[in-house]
Design brief:
By secondary structure, this protein is α/β, with parallel strands linked by helices. It has two domains: about 100 residues, Aspartate Aminotransferase, domain 1 (Alpha-Beta Complex); about 220 residues, Type I PLP-dependent aspartate aminotransferase-like (Major domain) (Aspartate Aminotransferase, domain 2), CATH 3.40.640. It is about 40% helix and about 15% strand. The protein is built from 13 helices and twelve strands. The strands form three sheets. It has a seven-stranded mixed beta sheet, with helices on both faces. A three-stranded antiparallel beta sheet has the order 9-12-11, covered by helices on one side. It has a two-stranded parallel sheet with strand order 1-10. Helix 7 links the parallel strand 5 and strand 6. The termini are far apart.
Length: about 375
């Protein structure tokens, strides 16, 4: 038919991608089904709704305000976060999810070609962001008991790593690294240390875990926090970083996107952070359900290492296939996560759900385990 424009075949296309982008593999996210009846225990979301203060702020929001650009630095949120954490506002940057902070750290502080160091296993976005910057990733295995590698700093320094990323509580194991260990790691590293505290709100309070003091003892430490997990706002995409001002300033004033956070997100995130009483009650409920879920899984023969996050890493009993179990649960409308990384092939990572969701999971596992 005349007048049609035909797309060229792939073989005819000129390669416009940078070579490193063409070679790399992108991030693989967990399933996000549209069916609200699916039990989602695969992406570590909070099983409970956000604070009522969020709903009230949304109800009162004047949509006429959307005709103007939002506050460029999210100062209202930063003031609230500063009060929560006992630091000055210039120690904070608000970002479009914690992932934007990770990207800012890589593009601001990691020269192309200079390695990023992390543990193995770890958050799978780290090597993706490094590859985008054309940087290799140095992965140092956890100890046999999921501990922080004692040679992490030495190996990162030997490789010339400019940035070392540690998730704490760790993902996907749930292990908590002591502040003293991180203190020593920061002192030994030649480059920056990013402590990714996406799950820190779920740490048992009696442990007294608090890494804020590390920021005053070291000039190379950045803490990542998110509103996605502890504040039940994963759909909002709001995170923040806490660090000395000399690390915040270049990201805030140079490499951050202009107006990176929309006005509605700023209003709702600030409302959530202001309701600390609700947040602490939420964290208590998640911790209680975590203990119940762990007991139920162990009664079925699954091995569960101690977790201080809102998920459990469950090693399936011998004679069972973890991927097959995952598929069986999915067929029943229950999503969990299976990894193929070395050492995790026989494990399922299971987010803590409500008591109803957890019981449904246990019921299907009872029928599916051999």
């Amino acid at each position: 038919m005349r007048g049609l424009i035909h797309s060229p075949g792939c073989a005819d296309l000129k390669p416009y991608e940078r070579d490193n982008i063409r070679r790399m593999t992108g991030y693989t996210w967990g399933e996000q089904p549209s069916d609200a009846e699916v039990i989602k225990l695969n992406t570590n979301e909070n099983p409970y709704p956000p604070s009522p203060a969020v709903a009230a702020a949304l109800k009162d929001f004047d949509v006429a305000r959307l005709r103007r650009y939002p506050p460029p630095l999210a100062d209202g949120f930063r003031e609230q976060a500063a009060a929560v954490h006992g630091v000055d506002r210039d120690w904070l940057i608000a970002t479009n999810g914690g992932d934007e902070l990770l990207r800012l750290l890589v593009t601001t502080f990691l020269e192309p070609g200079r390695p990023l160091a992390t543990t193995a296993p770890s958050y799978s976005l780290y090597p993706v962001l490094a590859a985008i910057q054309n940087c290799p990733t140095v992965e140092v295995p956890l100890t046999e008991g999921h501990g922080l590698p004692p040679d992490l700093a030495a190996r990162a320094n030997a490789a010339g790593a400019g940035l070392t990323c540690v998730v704490n509580p760790h993902a996907p194991t749930g292990a908590l690294f002591a502040v003293d260990e991180l203190d020593q790691l920061a002192a030994e590293l030649d480059g920056l240390l990013l402590i990714d505290e996406a799950y820190v709100d779920f740490v048992d309070p009696e442990l007294g875990h608090d890494s804020i003091a590390l920021l005053r003892r070291h000039d190379n430490v950045v803490l990542l926090r998110t509103m996605s997990k502890g504040y039940a706002l994963a759909g909002l995409r709001f995170g923040y970083g806490i660090a000395p001002p000399h690390l915040i300033a270049p990201m805030l004033g140079k490499t951050r996107d202009s107006y990176n956070l929309d006005l509605l997100a700023q209003v709702l995130a600030t409302a959530a952070l202001s309701d600390q009483a609700w947040a602490r009650d939420n964290w208590d409920k998640v911790r209680a359900e975590r203990a119940c879920l762990q007991a139920g899984l162990e009664a079925l023969g699954l091995q569960i290492p101690p977790s201080q996050a809102n998920f459990l890493l469950a090693r399936v009993p011998a004679g069972n296939d973890a991927e097959a179990l995952k598929q069986s649960l999915q067929a029943a409308g229950i999503l969990v996560r299976h990894f193929t990384a070395p050492g995790l092939e026989d494990c399922l990572r299971i987010s803590v759900g409500t008591d109803r969701e957890n019981e449904a999971l246990l019921e299907h596992l009872r029928a599916g385990l051999s």
